[in-house]
């Protein structure tokens, strides 16, 4: 029976605790910031807010890059904008692949017409820097593309030294930090990488729909060499470059940088409410302090892991490279993973995550990100999971999980 | 001097009346809806809201199309998604071009690698249907692409009969209704066109960042024939098509439709707050009633035009095809257009629009869209403009504009 639009009432979602791999609950300050009214896109207050956003995201990305701004779309919009603006058809790209989001990079690149090489790790591990170095040597790529934290496997790829390897080989570098930004350290300048992108909906504690990006001067120069401004809006100082035109208009970083520069080239109409959200996310992050925030996420990850293990469950993947903000845990033999997730949601209003591909049905993914990387939320989640497992008949030592987590939080 | 992030305070934009060509002020109900907390993207309440959005936008698009949903990005994201999903490199496309946004269609299409033909009208006019028919006959396109209301010229292209012409020629059809949806009638089914897209930030009275789209069954079939699901998330029932792969992942309408279907393919993370906004925009539109809403915009356009003429100003473009929701008016000889705009903003907190390309410096564009298509806002704008023009020394008959507008509103 078709839905009758006249019957739909006020927006009224359940008050659910989102402890999956993201999206998570937004910080209430972010939701309130979005209720500010709109501005004309070239009003001085609006361009002032845009400049503030640029300044706010530089420390969060660990960079002094001038070109630090927002892409109007979800996290994957910024991934595609980066790749389509850096890579021309026929360019060779090396993808560091250790999970679903590494595969996503290859998928996007194949549509761009790149020649794709990969250096892989099994799901649950990361790629040793020596293997990356050897692959760069072997493939001589124009770009090396890598995920920082891949929520599909809960692994975080160590990135110190990547930029040096790439620059020595004459390659540019791209890092997808969607799942770690605001929760684990992003050190674009120390890593020496050229473009890093994120999203609001995980450790930044905002809604999906705006994607922070930072671009090095070297990458910006490469991109501006591909500048082809729209015929309808050409202006002085925006000479077209000699490089191949970027294959997308919406994701053309040259035009987007010109929009965020004092040139204020008309491109899209900035998603103002999402910009307000991104600004408030960043103010909250910097107000807490980056080190304190990373420590809080680390404590949450420690506590979650300790609690799960105290229940007798097996945590997934390599300890040394596990993301702090999402934990994979094996679904015990004989337990119906989806029945537990349903009971968690229906009895406790808590969401935990399922898994993709080879891990589907094998693990749950339990996050503690942004506004939800808090001790009481970790404890409530563990207590609820214990109750659900007991009710499903799984034998575990009752009462241990929460105690172990409190201990591990420190 | 670099901006110091620690100094940025609470979000606090000025309370400005946005009477330009968009974005405009959002309806307060829309801003409030965005402050609802987030949901997991496959939670039953979230997918329920997605289904409601599909139902809500069908009457707004004037369609029974199953595939009626949102693209996560600004209005131009939906334009690019439509074109990249319908058009393969080498396909011939006919663009109906009568302003900057027709040029934008050619710009996006040229990046896709389409062979582009145009049928043009001078800025300030629209293209006669007979000229479109002749151009279809001459060029035998696979797709005809057209803007409905082009804010750059304030003209609205009549579209009745377009679909019949296209179908008779075996062509698909696309219409960009960004600037008219929610303010002028959109009749996707009566026009017989295949894809129509919009944006929230004009007559729908919401923020930029979410773009409604409707897709006919014929277009959906064409697009599904190009389906190539990501390697990481393939599932039963999603067989790849034989057609050429769509050149973008983010804008791949086949995957986006699979995400909005009961298959719930994982693609992007839906921009939840923007979906709440889009839902509330639609509830407001349908609650007012489509006919009443279109009549209100028509009254606002009539009143604005009458008021401007009563001041002795010359309205731009053909009367018969003028958009109801934005009015172009010639900047009088000897008047500094930017000085007037600045005075309007600084003394009255009212924004009116500048212009692009051949009309830059020639006309102002004054909108009355969505929540701002109200009698008092039209009158306040006219009164303020009169005061600014008098202060700049322009000779006009004082007190006539507001009276003429009140009369014309009816």
UniProtKB/TrEMBL annotation, chains A, B:
Enzyme class: transferase
Pfam (any one): Aminotran_5
EC number, as in UniProt: 2.6.1.-
GO MF annotations in UniProt: alanine-glyoxylate transaminase activity; L-serine-pyruvate transaminase activity
Cofactor(s) listed: pyridoxal 5'-phosphate
N6-(pyridoxal phosphate)lysine modifications at: 202
Amino-acid positions noted as binding substrate in the UniProt annotation, renumbered to this chain: 365
Boundaries of every Aminotransferase class V domain copy: 45-354
Keywords, comma-separated and alphabetical: Aminotransferase, Pyridoxal phosphate, Transferase
One Gene Ontology biological process: glycine biosynthetic process, by transamination of glyoxylate
Superkingdom: Bacteria
Family: Belongs to the class-V pyridoxal-phosphate-dependent aminotransferase family.
UniProt-recorded name of the protein: (S)-ureidoglycine-glyoxylate aminotransferase
The species this protein was found in: Sphingobium fontiphilum
Lineage, broadest ranks: Bacteria, Pseudomonadati, Pseudomonadota, Alphaproteobacteria, Sphingomonadales
